[in-house]
Design a protein that fits this description.
mainly alpha, 256 residues
């Protein structure tokens, strides 16, 4: 019974973590493929850091840089540059650089955040980034299910590593993009559609990452369910083919 309870708590924590990132940080903010209900938007901005341990603004900026410079020497996380095994440290180093750049208002980073009307989270600004981890650890110990909330929260580093490494090294390609993006079905199943990197890099403004019938994007299924509940709105016109993401972000900067 105890093992079942641990598994249930871990699953809930894991899904809350990845939905915050995949639907909130990624599809809603980074690519504006969906619009969150104002209350949910405030919850993601204010509470996302507590759920994931990651600042939403820094995550979004780093992800936009990844799209603009995908698999080039300027990509903040690419297996082309550091190999699959080097992705963990590379992600951490890039995240720290983005945080510092945003706090110093460095144009090299702030230019990717012109549409983000919120600051870096107060936990980061006050150098209290570790508090969410302590809170999750305390809750885990209090509930006596230590593998649940703590590992559910800390799983994002593994999630990101799988997407950023295998999603750009192992798998098939539906589209001839100007990077090494791949569609990795195992990663897609584990991380709610995020493994369909080739599809996503071809249609970055689409809330739906799957393209063919056998491709299942559980993150998009979550978006559809949340739309039915009135929690968000999917921009379905974004399913129309778009230019490569590199051109999209260049256009955003030029017109901002």
């Amino acid at each position: 019974m105890y093992i079942v309870l641990c598994a249930v708590v871990f699953t809930v924590a894991y899904l809350l973590n990845i939905l915050t990132v995949s639907v909130g940080y990624h599809r809603a903010f980074a690519h504006q493929a969906v619009t969150l209900h104002p209350l949910l938007r405030r919850l993601v901005i204010g509470g996302g850091n507590w759920v994931t341990g990651l600042d939403p603004k820094a995550w979004i900026v780093m992800h936009r840089m990844h799209h603009e410079y995908s698999d080039t020497p300027l990509d903040p996380h690419s297996p082309v540059n550091v190999g699959i095994l080097g992705m963990g440290l590379e992600q951490l180093r890039s995240y720290k650089r983005v945080i510092i750049g945003l706090l110093k208002k460095d144009p090299a980073y702030t230019r990717y955040a012109r549409d983000l009307d919120f600051p870096v989270n107060v936990l980061i600004r006050r150098k209290l980034w570790y508090l969410p981890y302590l809170v999750h650890a305390f809750v885990a110990l209090a509930l006596a299910v230590w593998v649940g909330p703590l590992l559910g929260m800390m799983s994002h580093a593994i999630q990101g590593g799988l997407v950023n490494s295998l999603g750009h090294a192992v798998g098939g390609r539906n589209f001839d993009t100007d990077d090494n993006s791949r569609n990795n079905h195992l990663v897609a199943w584990l991380i709610l559609g995020e493994g369909f990197q080739n599809n996503h890099h071809r249609y970055p403004a689409s809330a739906k990452f799957s393209f063919r019938r056998h491709e299942i994007d559980l993150g998009y299924c979550a978006c559809v369910s949340m739309e039915w509940l009135g929690w968000l709105e999917i921009h379905r016109n974004a399913l129309i083919p778009r230019p490569p993401a590199r051109a999209v972000w260049s256009l955003m900067r030029d017109t901002a």
